[in-house]
Write a structure and sequence with these properties.
The protein is globular. It starts with a helix and ends with a helix. 79% of the residues lie in helices and 0% in strands. It has a single domain, classed as Rhopdopsin 7-helix transmembrane proteins, CATH 1.20.1070.10. The chain has 252 residues and is mainly alpha-helical.
Length: 252
């Protein structure tokens, strides 16, 4: 019974992440011309699709799953987004509505290239095992520290975004932004430093953790899009960002 509940929760969480990534990613590009955030949201959604297909294919054969190229792809995409995607890339993309600073193509390409480098380094096979031969959790200090530091720096920015949202009267979006960001901090800590007890969540598969993580990441994708939209609409409504208003009208 517990396994069935975990499997259902995993499926729902992954579908939420996939939907949020593709839906909000398309909105970022179509309505706001923000390709940096749009591409990252697409990457996360694609990662979710890959993860789902991989889990379904190898549900009964875990050893074959670990040998599958899909597993390597999943780990790379996860490393990309956790290190640079929903950290530096998110901050640079949000500067368009927080500081009216839209990055150039050169900057966008540079950020994506940095993310590629981090993804390749942190996605190496030597970092992919979660447990050792005795069934104990493995902590990789360098990757874990990179993920934590990058997220905590991003959290500071998101707290600033929350304050901005509250100040313009978007209190519900501000509260949602704060809640999902704090939840994401818990996921970062549990991912590497404080895994759930094996009696509750088997370390090898971590079904409960991944169900919670996927759901949290999916809600982040939706929530941060609504936060971006609220700040954008406020800027346009107060005459701060007339260029964006003209561009959006042209698209419509």
């Amino acid at each position: 019974m517990r396994d069935d509940i975990y499997a259902l929760a995993f499926l729902i969480g992954d579908l939420v992440m996939i939907a949020g990534g593709y839906w909000a990613g398309w909105k970022f590009i179509k309505h706001y011309g923000n390709y940096l955030l749009g591409i990252e949201w697409f990457i996360i959604a694609t990662s979710g699709v890959n993860f789902l297909v991989w889990a379904l294919r190898f549900a009964e054969d875990k050893e074959a799953g670990a040998e599958s190229p899909q597993y390597a792809v999943a780990f790379f995409l996860d490393a990309f987004s956790r290190s640079i995607g929903v950290t530096l890339l998110l901050v640079v993309g949000f500067l368009a509505v927080t500081h009216r600073h839209r990055s150039t193509i050169v900057v966008d390409v540079a950020v994506l290239a940095v993310g590629l480098g981090f993804g390749l380094y942190l996605g190496q096979p030597k970092f992919q095992d979660h447990v050792d031969a005795s069934g104990h959790h493995i902590l990789y200090p360098v990757p874990a520290t990179i993920y934590l530091v990058m997220w905590l720096l991003t959290l500071l920015f998101l707290l600033y975004v929350t304050k901005r949202l509250w100040s313009i009267g978007a209190t519900k979006v501000a509260a949602a932004t704060l809640v999902v960001s704090v939840a994401a901090t818990g996921i970062v800590l549990c991912y590497d430093f404080f895994p759930f007890p094996a009696s509750v969540d088997p370390l090898e598969d971590r079904p409960l953790f991944y169900a919670l993580a996927l759901t949290t990441w999916g809600l982040q994708l939706f929530t941060y899009f609504f936060a971006y939209r609220a700040l954008h609409d406020h800027n346009v409504g107060t005459g701060v960002d007339e260029a964006s208003h003209d561009r959006q009208a042209a698209v419509a």
